[in-house]
Design the sequence.
C-alpha cells in the first residue's frame, strides 16, 4: 500500500513532520530559523505563487530462513529473500488566489517487497504496491483544488508544504479539498508514526491496521474533504470512491451504491498533546466470511471463497483513537482501532482490531540534532469468522497459508534515521514478527532493512 504522507520542515534540535490541513505546524517552530539544519536539497521560496518539490525513497529489506512446516499461496516465504522498492514523486502547486490553490503530483513506484507483499497483515514496507503487475510507469497520484474560507480576522502562521501554501492562515477557518488524493494524508495522522520515508515503515505502525480506508491498490482515491479548524480542535469529514473489488486498481464512480464516509475529531489541548477520534463507514461490493465458510462446508465450493459471496451494498464500519505526546526530545504515540469482522477486508490490510505503542527521540543528546531513532510495538488480530475462513484454506487478498493455528500477529519495529547532508537521509530498520499472518505454526521472522531518502 503505497502512501506518502508527510513532508520535512527544518527546525533547530531535530526535524519535525508537517502534515495535512490540521497542521501540526501550528505548534512547530518556523522553518526559516537560521539555526535550523537545511533538510531539502534546494531551498524553497516562502512567497512564490508556484511550489515545486520532489522526493526519492529507496527501501531494501530481507530476512533469513524461519520455521514454517507448511506454506500456502499467500504465505510469507520461509526461505531467505531480499527485495528493493523505490518511489519518486514530483509535487507541483499553483496559487490561483489568496484562498485557492491547485495541486498536481506525478509519482512512480518500482521494485517490490519481500514475498510480493503477501503473508503479513502488518507488512514491513509501506512503499510497496501490492500488485506488482502495475509496474513502475509514472502515474498521477494527486490532482486537486484546495480552498480556505476564513472565519473571523485572527491569523496563525504555518510553513509551506505540498498541498497547502500556508504561511499566514486564518486561525478559524473551513478548508476543503476536492480531487484525487490519499485519505491517509488527512486522517489518522500522527507526529511519531505516519511517515515511511523517515520514520517507521510498517503498514500497521504508520496507519491503524483497522482503518480500511477507501483507496485503490496504490493508496489513492477521488474524494472531497472538508475541515473546520480552530486553534484547539478540528473536525474533518470526507466522502470517497471505493475500489470495485478488494485491493483493486479501479474505483466505483457510483456514490449511490459504493462510497467511503470518514469523520475525525482532533483535539489539541496543548502544544505537546494531540488526540484524534476516527470513525468510518464503507459501502462496497464485499464478500462475507461466514457465507464463504457455509458454502464450503455444504460442498458447494472446493475451498472457502469470499470472492464468490460478494454482494453490492454491504457495509464495513470501524474507528479508533490516536494519541501523540511530546516531552523534551522524546515523543510518544499510541493507536487503538477496530472494525466489524463479518465482511472481507477490502482496501487496506487484513486487520480487524489493533493496538500500537511507540515513540521516538531526536539525536540532540549525541550531537546529531537532525537524526531520529524510534521503536514501536503493534499487535494485530482478526475476527472469529476471519480466523475460521483462513483455517479452512480460504485466501484473503494478503493472507492464506492453507490452514491456520491462530495467534495475534505481534511486531516490534525499530529504526535509526541519520541526516547526511541537506535533503539526504539514510536509515537502518528492523522488524521482529511473531505469528506472521496470525499463524503460530510459522515464524518468528526478523526482517532487516536499509533506506535512502532524498528531499528536493
Sequence:
Amino acid at each position: 500500500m503505497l502512501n506518502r504522507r508527510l513532508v520535512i520542515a527544518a527546525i533547530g534540535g531535530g526535524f519535525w513532520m508537517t502534515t495535512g490541513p490540521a497542521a501540526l505546524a501550528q505548534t512547530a517552530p518556523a522553518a526559516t530559523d537560521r539555526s535550523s539544519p537545511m533538510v531539502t536539497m534546494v531551498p524553497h521560496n516562502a512567497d512564490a505563487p508556484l511550489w515545486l518539490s520532489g522526493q526519492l525513497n529507496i527501501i531494501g529489506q530481507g530476512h533469513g530462513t524461519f520455521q514454517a512446516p507448511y506454506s500456502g499461496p499467500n504465505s510469507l516465504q520461509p526461505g531467505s529473500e531480499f527485495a528493493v522498492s523505490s518511489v519518486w514523486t514530483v509535487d507541483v502547486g499553483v496559487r490561483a488566489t489568496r484562498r485557492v490553490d491547485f495541486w498536481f503530483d506525478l509519482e512512480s513506484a518500482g521494485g517490490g517487497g519481500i514475498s510480493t507483499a503477501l503473508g503479513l497483515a502488518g507488512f514491513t514496507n509501506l512503499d510497496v504496491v501490492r500488485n506488482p503487475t502495475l509496474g513502475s510507469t509514472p502515474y498521477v497520484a494527486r490532482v486537486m483544488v484546495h480552498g480556505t474560507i476564513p472565519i473571523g480576522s485572527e491569523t496563525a502562521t504555518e510553513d509551506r508544504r505540498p498541498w497547502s501554501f500556508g504561511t499566514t492562515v486564518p486561525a478559524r477557518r473551513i478548508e476543503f479539498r476536492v480531487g484525487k488524493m490519499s485519505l491517509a494524508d488527512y486522517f489518522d495522522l500522527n507526529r511519531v508514526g505516519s511517515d515511511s520515508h523517515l520514520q517507521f515503515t510498517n503498514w500497521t505502525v504508520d496507519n491503524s491496521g483497522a482503518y480500511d480506508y477507501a483507496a485503490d491498490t496504490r493508496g489513492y482515491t477521488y474524494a472531497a474533504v472538508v475541515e473546520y479548524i480552530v486553534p484547539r480542535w478540528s473536525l474533518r469529514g470526507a466522502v470517497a470512491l471505493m475500489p470495485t473489488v478488494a485491493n483493486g486498481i479501479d474505483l466505483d464512480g457510483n456514490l449511490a451504491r459504493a462510497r467511503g464516509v470518514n469523520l475525525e475529531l482532533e483535539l489539541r489541548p496543548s502544544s505537546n498533546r494531540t488526540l484524534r477520534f476516527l470513525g468510518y463507514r464503507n459501502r462496497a461490493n464485499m464478500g462475507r466470511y461466514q457465507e464463504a465458510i457455509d458454502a464450503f462446508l455444504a460442498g458447494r465450493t472446493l475451498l472457502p471463497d469470499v470472492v464468490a459471496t460478494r454482494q453490492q451494498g454491504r457495509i464495513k464500519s470501524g474507528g479508533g483513537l490516536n494519541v501523540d505526546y511530546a516531552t523534551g526530545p522524546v515523543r510518544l504515540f499510541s493507536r487503538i482501532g477496530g472494525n466489524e469482522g463479518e465482511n472481507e477486508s477490502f482496501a487496506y490490510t487484513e486487520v480487524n482490531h489493533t493496538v500500537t505503542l511507540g515513540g521516538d527521540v531526536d539525536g540532540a543528546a549525541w550531537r546529531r540534532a537532525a537524526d531520529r531513532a524510534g521503536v514501536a510495538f503493534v499487535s494485530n488480530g482478526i475476527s472469529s469468522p476471519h480466523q475460521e475462513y483462513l483455517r479452512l484454506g480460504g485466501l484473503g487478498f494478503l493472507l492464506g497459508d492453507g490452514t491456520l493455528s491462530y495467534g495475534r500477529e505481534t511486531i516490534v519495529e525499530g529504526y535509526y534515521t541519520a541526516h547526511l547532508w541537506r535533503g539526504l537521509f539514510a536509515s537502518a530498520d528492523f522488524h521482529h514478527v511473531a505469528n506472521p499472518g496470525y499463524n503460530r505454526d510459522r515464524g518468528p521472522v526478523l526482517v532487516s532493512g536499509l533506506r535512502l531518502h532524498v528531499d528536493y
About this structure: The chain has one domain: 7-455. Residues 289-297 form the longest helix (9 residues). The first strand starts at residue 7 and ends at 11.
